[in-house]
Every structure is written in structure tokens, then in C-alpha cells.
Design goal:
Blueprint (H helix, E strand, L loop, with lengths): L2 E2 L5 H10 L4 H11 L15 H10 E2 L4 E7 L5 E6 L5 E8 L4 E4 L3 E2 L17 E2 L2 H19 L5 E4 L9 H12 L11 E5 L3 H9 L5 E5 L5 H7 L2 H4 L2 H15 L3 E7 L7 H11 L5 E6 L13 H13 L4 E4 L19
Helix pairs in contact: 1-2, 4-5, 6-9, 10-11
Bound molecules: S-adenosyl-L-homocysteine and iron/sulfur cluster.
């Protein structure tokens, strides 16, 4: 059995190379090929001698993600289907905006949480992605950022398929290498991890000194309602989640956003807005009001636009920082919650 060479940290790689009688600097060189230069095969590592490449190929392999179906939206958004080494499929999205190009990446194949409104939740969770597979999505999507505006990716959001904090180690390792000078050298501030609210995960990432932004998929501001649409709320209720958010904020001072999808006649009343304000007062945050993207077989509908305006103005008039997020890539089902490998 060959070893997956991207599973090793630099230090571990140095030890592996020692066993092969190879010096430290060779391990460093290979590390650079693997990450900074995102080599897809050992053969590409042309600064190594042919003999060494053969020796490495005997023991190690790279398991890269390959490009599958590409769909381009009229608004410039690109949805990229990607195939994993075990033939499983995931999706990622590149969203261009005036001054930014954002990659939306997946953290798992499917999702175990089955929120009642989300297309990904209908797929069963098949497996976690490893750090290399998350990294590869960024590298592949970067190509479309460059193609679109001659500018590389500026931001990364973990808002594709899966619950990032239920694949904790791989997600943190992917962020470490994306932000490392040995990798893509992006700032943690440019990264946002979206979670359905895994309190322990939020505490743990704070303790590990991670400084990226957090988005909480809130969608309902009282437990009774949230229980109905997000199973995870039964084990991680709002009080527990908000305790962990306070902890994150106190230690990092980093940005927190609440994502709130407005569903018709479910969470769009002014009473709901009052509950949302109560939560908003618990920890400094921004609120993103999200338009629901219809999912086949789901009874929820997006709120009426008059209701939305009323809800948003009510919040604004009470000093809440709130923005309405327009959906991107709708014509290709690339919007949030619509990633479900439909066209592959
Ligand atoms: N599992 C994580 C990250 C992926 S989902 C999480 O739940 O936060 C990314 C975002 O899309 C979440 O805020 C999620 O609630 C939202 N979403 C899911 N389905 C949606 C839909 N049909 N329309 C709009 N947003 C949706
Ligand atoms: Fe999973 Fe997030 Fe979809 Fe819920 S909203 S099913 S946690 S991907």
C-alpha cells in the first residue's frame, strides 16, 4: 500500500525522508511541490532527480481532486463538479463580485445533519474530505477567478456541502495550509467557516488559536422553532451555541455573522425579528438575511418581498447591522443549499 504523501506535515515528511536516506532539504522541496506548487503527480517534481522520483513513487502517492462538470451562470458564478480519487463527487463554487472573488468549498461528501430545507441534507454523509481535498478545491476554483477577472481568489467560505465542524481536524488543517506561506499564504481574515452550530467545535477552534470568521446558520431565533428545521438544535441549543460564540468573540475579536433565511410564514414576523434582536444583543455580530432558494420536495417557500422589507427595516430602525444577501448562480443551482450533485 502506498502512503498518501499529502497526509504528512513537513516534520513528518522529514522523518519519512530520513528513513529513505534523503536529506531534510529534499523533504522541504517536496513539501513545496505538494502545496505551494500544487503538484498533481510526483513526476511533475522536476527539481528532483529521476531516481528520487522513482524511489518516491514506489512508496507514496498523491490523491488529487479532478475537475468534472463545469457550469457557468449568466452572473459570472461558476459551479464546478469535482471527482475524488474514490470516484465520489463534490461541488464548489466561484462567486465573482465587484472587488472580490470568493470560493465556496465543500467539507464533506453529503451531510449528516439533514436540515429540513437544505438539498445537501438530503444526501447521506458518505465521508469527510481530507485537508488536501479541500485545498485542491481552492486551487481549482482559483483558475476560474483568474479566468473571470485576471485576479486570484480573495476570499474563501466553507459553505459548500457538509458541516465543517463535524470534520474538524481536516478543516483546520486545510485552513492552516491555505494560510501558510508554504501554501497559498492567504490571511485567515479572508476565510469564513459556516456552521449549523456545533458548540464544542466553536470552543475548540478558539482554543487552537484559529482566527477566521464564523458564520452561524441561525434561521430561527427561538429553540422551539429552530428544533423544527434543524435537528442539531436538539443537542446544541441556542444557549449553548451562544456561550461558545461569546467565547470565540472574547478570545479572537473576529467577525461573527448570523445567517437568517426568511421562510414564508415561518420566521418572518415582527415577533421573530424581536427574538432575533435578543440574540443579536448577546454577542457582536452582523446579520445576513438570505433569500431561500427553492429545493425540490421541500414545502418551505421564500418570504414575500414586502415581508422581507418590513423585517429588514424593523431591524435597521433598531440599530441592527443587517444586509440582504442576493443569491448568486441561481440559474445553475449553485446557490447556497442547492449543491446536490444533480448534474453529474
Ligand atoms: N453546514 C454548514 C455550511 C454549509 S450550508 C451550515 O449549515 O452552516 C451553507 C449555508 O446555506 C447555511 O447557512 C445553510 O443554512 C444555507 N442554506 C441551506 N439550504 C439553503 C437554501 N435552500 N437556500 C438558502 N440557503 C440555504
Ligand atoms: Fe448540512 Fe448545513 Fe445543509 Fe444543514 S444546512 S444539512 S448542516 S449542509
Amino acid at each position: 500500500m502506498k502512503k498518501d504523501i499529502r497526509k504528512f506535515t513537513t516534520e513528518e515528511l522529514i522523518k519519512e525522508f530520513e528513513k529513505l536516506g534523503e536529506p531534510k532539504f529534499r523533504a522541504k522541496q517536496v513539501h513545496e511541490w505538494l502545496w505551494k506548487k500544487s503538484a498533481r503527480s510526483i513526476d511533475e517534481m522536476t527539481s528532483l532527480s529521476k531516481d528520487l522520483r522513482i524511489k518516491l513513487q514506489d512508496q507514496f502517492e498523491i490523491l488529487p481532486v479532478s475537475e468534472g462538470v463545469i457550469q457557468k451562470s449568466t452572473d459570472g458564478t461558476v459551479k464546478l463538479g469535482m471527482r475524488l480519487h474514490d470516484q465520489r463527487l463534490i461541488e464548489g463554487v466561484m462567486i465573482p463580485d465587484d472587488d472580490r472573488n470568493t470560493a465556496c468549498v465543500s467539507s464533506q461528501v453529503g451531510c449528516s445533519l439533514s436540515c429540513s430545507f437544505c438539498a445537501t441534507g438530503f444526501l447521506k454523509r458518505e465521508r469527510n474530505l481530507d485537508a488536501g481535498e479541500i485545498y485542491d478545491q481552492v486551487v481549482l476554483l482559483n483558475k476560474y477567478a483568474l479566468e473571470h477577472s485576471q485576479k486570484p481568489l480573495t476570499n474563501i467560505v466553507y459553505m459548500g456541502m457538509g458541516e465543517p465542524l463535524l470534520n474538524f481536524d481536516n478543516v483546520m488543517n486545510s485552513i492552516r495550509i491555505i494560510t501558510s506561506p508554504d501554501g497559498l499564504n492567504m490571511a485567515q481574515k479572508r476565510i469564513t467557516v459556516s456552521t449549523s452550530g456545533i458548540a464544542k467545535g466553536i470552543k475548540r477552534l478558539t482554543d487552537e488559536g484559529m482566527k477566521f470568521n464564523l458564520a452561524l446558520s441561525l434561521h430561527a431565533a427561538v429553540d422551539e422553532k429552530r428544533d423544527k428545521i434543524m435537528d442539531i438544535n436538539h443537542s446544541n441549543n441556542l444557549e449553548t451555541v451562544f456561550d461558545s460564540l461569546r467565547y470565540f468573540y472574547e478570545k479572537t475579536g473576529n467577525k461573527i455573522t448570523f445567517e437568517y433565511i426568511l421562510f414564508d410564514k415561518f420566521n418572518d414576523s415582527l415577533e421573530d425579528a424581536d427574538h432575533l434582536i435578543e440574540l443579536y444583543n448577546k454577542v457582536p455580530a452582523f446579520i445576513n438575511i438570505i433569500e431561500y432558494n427553492n429545493v425540490e420536495g421541500v414545502d418551505f417557500k421564500k418570504a414575500k418581498s414586502e415581508k422581507r422589507n418590513e423585517f429588514v427595516n424593523y431591524l435597521r430602525n433598531r440599530g441592527v447591522s443587517v444586509a440582504v444577501r442576493r443569491s448568486r448562480g441561481k440559474d445553475i443551482d449553485a446557490a447556497c443549499g442547492q449543491l446536490a450533485n444533480k448534474n453529474q
